Amino acid sequence: MTFRVITTMELFALNSPSKAIIFKERRLTYFKRTLFGLFLLILLGTLVPEKIQVTVAGAVASDWNQNTFWYEPWGSSGVHKGVDIFGKVGTAVISAVDGFVIYKGHVDKGGNVVAVLGPKWRIHYYAHLKSDSVSTGQFVERREVIGTLGDSGNAQGKPAHVHYSILSLLPHPWLVTTEPQGWKRMFYLDPDAILKR
Ligand SMILES: [Zn+2]
Predict the structure, then answer these.
(1) CA atoms of 150 and 79, how far apart (whole Å)
(2) Which residues have a beta carbon within 5 Å of ligand 1, which is an ion?
């Protein structure tokens, strides 16, 4: 009778293949479920109805210039990726949509800014605020006051206005044009068209 020490590799060959396959299959199922969950989440986000509100209290369509979206040349940004809604300093700036505040703070060009993630995976961006009255992570309702109208950032000294942009996280490739920075139009939607809908 002969004895032989079994090697690790042999042990692996005897025992592990079935375990390895089960592990692989579990991982695959987990991956598929995660992917499906993500897909469902994105789909649900697009199904939330987008009710929209002009973002300055009391403002009407004549308080912004409908032709300034994608106007160029426009300062250091090159093209203007939003509309400027004018009003008196200190007027309430209200949320255009229901959503979550994903950012608030101070940036060079925008000054005091607030960004709200709303329906359809769209980020609503408000800049040049005098002050803000929200905190990051907070849920805001449409028409809820998020700040006041000002001239912060590179709007300093100009008539008070909110720079309002709508940034879509889901690309709209059919909106791409040959204009300067035209490819970015798949992400920036025209607030004028959306507000007047
Ligand atoms: Zn602007």
Answers:
(1) 22
(2) 84, 163
